[in-house]
Amino acid sequence: MTPLDLPAVVNADPVLRRWGRNLSAEVLLEVGPQSWLLSIVKGAVEARPGPFLMPRWDVALRIDPDAWADYLRPEPPPGRHDLFALIRFGKLKLEGNLHPFMSHILWFKGALATLRGAAA
Amino acid sequence: MMEDIIGRYMRLDLDGVAHRIYVEEAGQGIPLLCLHTAGSDTRQWRGLLNDPAVTRHFRCIAFDLPWHGKSSPPEGWWKDEYKLTTADYAGAVMGVSRALGLEKPIVMGCSIGGRIVLELAAAYGAELGGVIGLQSSSHVVPYYDVSWTHRADVHGSEACAGVVSGLMAPQSPEGERWETLWHYMQGGPGVFRGDLHFYKEEGDLRGRLARIDTRQCPVWLLTGEYDYSCTPEATMEVAAAVPGAKARIMEKLGHFPMSEHYAQFAAALGPVLEEVRGRQ
């Protein structure tokens, strides 16, 4: 799956909808040369693929492509298994207004983990 | 079904300040004093205290640090910012141990507990039967801004759980992982951050390791491979600096081995406890 699959999966997940009920933000997700804009309104996601000429976002997640591929594996290896693990080892850079992310860590971890299992 | 764990409250002074400490225990035999992680409480040891293979030979005791679980903060807490220090922490552990009259206890701690057992071995080795450090490191490099766990515009309980959730192995059972997170969600405001003052700032014990004499106080180190806070490399660094320390990296476990997947942890702890018994 790719981040374009997030709306179908996340919006139908009652647990993530509950965790994200107060989350509204524009999120830029960037994996190497690929990027996506996630428009989140009260936990419901819309996704658009890049590239973008003049993107507007609140918080950006810029992820190393190799680390992202490992993260998406069904049984990810140590250090690549969690967003904070990626941060710890310099494979994920957070930029912008961190409040939406830091106030909804469990949502972000849970939402992106739904993409697991079909890594290229 | 009633479990065999018994909980009681203890009144004692720590550094001249009155405290009410929650202590629970199960089993008989060699005293095994267990220390929970930062921002959590004794419930992390529920698997161990309910394991007959352990309680048959060990008197397993766990207590909530002041400010944690069912141990209240001292009177006047509302006027202070909680910040754990090496001296506070070592004083609390030795204070509880002495108040219970434990003779040569084995002290087993995880994370901040895995850190403080190194100080205990260095400073109080003659009083102890040995230490077992889980996710043990002498220092860590900060990798996020801990102030996010204690501010009015972020739900501290959920932030604390969010920060630590990925420290567990993905293979650990979902129920045990979420129970571990529930304990984090129940910490008092600023308590996790206050513990991290010891873990990430004040409690750098690199300079203390040379004082540990493993002939007097043996040291065992067990670390889960998925821990990116206290990494396996950090534990092996301690093992290299403490002659005689025995270290093992545990597969498919993370930062909370006793709480996130007890059965997996028990398989690694078993041989250590056998060795402890063999030395008695």
TrEMBL record, chain B:
Gene3D superfamilies (alphabetical): alpha/beta hydrolase (3.40.50.1820)
The residue ranges of the AB hydrolase-1 domain are: 31-136
Q: Which UniProt keywords apply?
A: Hydrolase
InterPro entries the record matches: AB_hydrolase_1 (IPR000073), AB_hydrolase_fold (IPR029058), Carboxylesterase_BioH (IPR050228)
In which domain of life is the source organism classified? Bacteria
Q: Which Pfam families match?
A: Abhydrolase_1
A GO molecular function assigned to this protein is: hydrolase activity
Q: Does the keyword Hydrolase apply?
A: yes
| PANTHER family, per database record | HYDROLASE ALPHA/BETA FOLD FAMILY, PEROXISOMAL MEMBRANE PROTEIN LPX1
Protein name (database record): Alpha/beta hydrolase
